[in-house]
Design a protein that fits this description.
The chain is α/β, with parallel strands linked by helices. It is built from 21 helices and 14 strands.
Length: 678
């Protein structure tokens, strides 16, 4: 599966601006022009004129500042000292009247007075103010004022601008900005065709529309999930040849639900369907429908379906449907007016209401189909459900071929070997592996990508990056015994995954790693295999205790892993006689109250805990006996690790003196071997 356009694939023929509608489709008119390819919408929320808007705001603020400078803030006064200037002017009968507040005195001269007498800072005015010092004799000042007939007013000194001027200058800039924002919001809503004022654009769908000429992904870019691709081929054929099915009374499914683990290619499949059919593709995440404003989600759903109808035939793709499609009436619901439920109700109404002859198909993707509302899954809505499985060995080989089409590979690269060692990886993981290998090759200066680059990239992804830390000899030896215990028990336990690499080089959070991977894909696990995994996880801790008589914290992740396996054996898979075939533990990441999962009583929980402990203790005793009997092999592995730090698969089995298991080939490869031998 490829996430991008293949550089080696020849370019497609150019698409004409006017897309030819397949015969038989009934397309509604588009009064507002949304049915046709929309014009280039401005990216700015203010209509694409953000720079002009900023300039206008700055100009208006400058005008506001200029106006404020023109509004008088009272009389322009000259500030004079109390002595000798103010007292002298009173004595010369040049002071007409004064008013005071506290130590501040303001007044008017009978004749204009210039202060200071000289200098560029001197000002001439009939109005003055001064400050009375605290040590001045107020009685003498009062007598002086009375002797020279100075009027003493009862009102306080001027406080500056008037109330209206203060309100205008204080709120003027804010009012201007609000008015500009409202004007631009209305203009943006009108340009988008929604109208409705400032809040009109909230109800508009945010779906990303991709025209056929812009769609570069087809079924050629999808590999490794042939069953899912075959299911969707019929959808493409119906979009291209609707009369072929209508003459026999067939109706296209209104909705197709793609479910599967993350990274398996659900979104890629939806884009490939649109690219293969050559129809407009409306893509939107389910979480984009819901807002805090009640009713916005439902409005966006209506707008999205209206756009798709006007552009029919078309495909609507809703990613992560479980964000709004959860079962209604649960504990997380806030009632019938919950915004998420209103959005879901609108989707149900739209899917049930539009005519199949319109040619609008809804594709949705989810990782958790079991939590979806039953109303979504009934016939007439999501009629078809496609489970996108993780690829097998042959599928991974095909996926690697797709992703390496634009990567120069060295002849030594064996894609079959890479596919066999990447069990459990999905398309996104393999794409990341190829990219990491290319980056590794570029970092090392290679002209092409070598097999060793893929090996290093796989170790980097699975095990983590190497850490450059200095470990003491005692820590190195303890780590070597820990990892050798994992490796030896994995080699000697029947049915356990083969050991691929053992290393005491710190990677990620671990001081050492033991990589085990199956030779072929496993689709179910028997009890012996699960017990073998528990034994391998216990082996490192048991080896430390066997050699040193004590344990460390290095087995934390091993204990978590084996505990999870043991609890699932007892509570989910019915592998305990004490509990029986009863599901008492829900699936990972899900709540306890699910259909088919009984509520656990205190007594049942105690039985589960006892069974988990019994399984783990039995496995620990067997591991202890196994390592004690093979102490010489354990010491040999430790000595080799301390010398080389890393042992690959062949070296590890040779050092331990254990026969390497034969590689299991997939059925397709076995058939090829049979033909070659015949």
């Amino acid at each position: 599966m490829a996430d991008g356009q293949d550089e080696r694939r020849p370019p497609r023929a150019p698409t004409t601006p006017e897309r030819q509608q397949p015969s038989g489709w009934r397309v509604q008119p588009a009064p507002d022009g949304r049915g046709a390819p929309p014009p280039e919408r401005p990216k700015s929320p203010f209509g694409g004129i953000g720079r002009r808007w900023l300039i206008l705001v700055l100009v208006l603020l400058a005008v506001n500042f200029w106006i404020s400078s023109l509004i008088p803030s009272g009389h322009e006064r000259v500030r004079v000292p109390y002595t000798p200037t103010f007292v002298q002017q009173v004595q010369r009968d040049n002071v007409d009247e004064i008013s005071s507040k506290g130590a501040t005195i303001q007044g008017t001269f009978k004749h204009e007075f210039k202060y200071p007498p000289t200098g560029k800072d001197s000002k001439s005015s009939k109005y003055f103010d001064t400050e009375v010092p605290t040590f001045a004799n107020t009685d003498e000042l009062s007598k002086l004022l009375q002797d020279h007939n100075v009027t003493v007013n009862a009102k306080s000194p001027e406080q500056g601008r008037s109330l209206i001027a203060n309100l205008l200058l204080g709120f003027g800039p804010t009012l201007l900005l609000i008015a500009i924002f409202v004007w631009f919001a209305r203009r943006a809503a009108s340009a988008a065709g929604g109208g409705g004022g400032m809040l009109g654009s909230f109800g508009r769908s945010r779906a990303k529309r991709i025209e056929p000429s812009q769609q570069t992904v087809t079924f050629d870019d999808v590999a490794g999930i042939d069953e899912a691709k075959a299911e969707l081929t019929e959808i493409v054929d119906f979009l291209q040849n609707p009369d072929k099915y209508r003459r026999l009374g067939g109706k296209i499914p209104r909705g197709v639900l793609l479910s599967g683990a993350p990274g398996t290619g659900k979104t890629l499949l939806a884009r490939a369907v649109a690219g293969q059919a050559g129809v407009p593709f409306f893509s939107m995440s389910a979480s984009e429908f819901v807002e805090m404003i009640v009713g916005v989600g439902a409005s966006r759903v209506r707008d999205l379906f209206n756009q798709a109808k006007e552009a029919a035939p078309a495909i609507i793709f809703i990613d992560e449907l479980d964000a709004i499609g959860r079962q209604r009436g649960g504990t997380a619901s806030l009632g019938g007016n919950d915004e998420r439920e209103q959005t879901l109700n609108q989707i149900l109404t739209e899917m049930d209401g539009f005519d199949p002859a319109m040619g609008v198909i809804v594709l949705a993707a989810t990782n958790r189909p079991e939590i979806l509302d039953p109303a979504l899954l009934r016939p007439g809505r999501f009629d078809r459900r496609v489970n996108v499985q993780s690829p097998d060995t042959v599928g991974r080989r095909k996926i690697l071929e797709v992703h390496t089409r634009s990567v120069p590979l060295d002849p030594s690269v064996d894609l079959d070997a890479i596919a066999s060692t990447t069990v459990g990886m999905v398309g996104a993981d393999l794409a990341n592996l190829v990219n990491e290998a290319a980056l590794t090759a570029a970092r090392l200066g290679h002209e092409k990508v070598w097999q060793a680059d893929f090996t290093n990239a796989l170790e980097r992804i699975v095990l983590g990056s190497e850490r450059k830390i200095m470990m003491s000899e005692r820590d190195r030896e303890r780590t070597a015994y820990h990892e050798s215990g994992h490796a030896l028990v994995g080699m000697l336990t029947p049915g356990a995954d083969p050991v691929r690499k053992v290393s005491i080089i710190p990677r990620g959070p671990a001081l050492g790693v033991t990589l085990s991977a199956p030779e072929a894909d496993r689709f179910s696990y028997d009890q012996d295999y699960l017990l073998g995994r528990i034994k391998v996880a216990l082996a490192g801790r048991v080896a430390e205790k066997l050699i040193y008589g004590e344990i460390t914290t290095g087995a934390e992740s091993d204990i978590q892993q084996l505990t999870q396996i043991a609890r699932q054996m007892v509570g989910r898979w019915g592998m305990s006689d004490a509990v029986g075939p009863v599901a008492v533990i829900p699936r990972d990441g899900q709540g306890p109250l699910l259909p088919g999962v009984s509520e656990v009583s205190e007594q049942t929980q105690r039985v589960v805990d006892e069974e988990v402990r019994r399984i783990v203790e039995r496995c620990e005793n067997e591991v202890r006996s196994l390592l004690s009997e093979n102490r010489s092999r354990l010491d040999a592995l430790v000595a080799a690790l301390l010398e080389k730090e890393t042992l690959d698969q062949d070296e590890a089995y040779v050092v331990a003196g254990v026969s390497r298991p034969q590689r299991e080939l997939p059925e397709e490869s076995l058939e090829t071997v049979r033909r070659d031998r015949s």
